[in-house]
């Protein structure tokens, strides 16, 4: 399958390529989990692919308040979206670290190869 060998960043450039890439990814992985944290804030997420609902993201967010006894409970939300909406989220989501995009986070957590890193292979 040629789609399996698509470069991550190349797949993001087209809706059709990304659909094939993400479908293949979730055939071999039940879910993708990861987190993002800065000193004052955190996000923990789980991403799955559902044949009926599309991409399902479960997100737990909260505040890191060291030494504060009455910190608010984490907030959990679940959202379903199309694969194309997920691609757009990856392309446009920025974290507090302006040098880190959701695409970077997804690539690191999913272990998705980047042609820049695999050029010697």
UniProtKB/TrEMBL annotation:
It comes from the Bacteria. This is Uncharacterized protein. It comes from Lentilactobacillus curieae. The lineage of its organism: Bacteria, Bacillati, Bacillota, Bacilli, Lactobacillales.
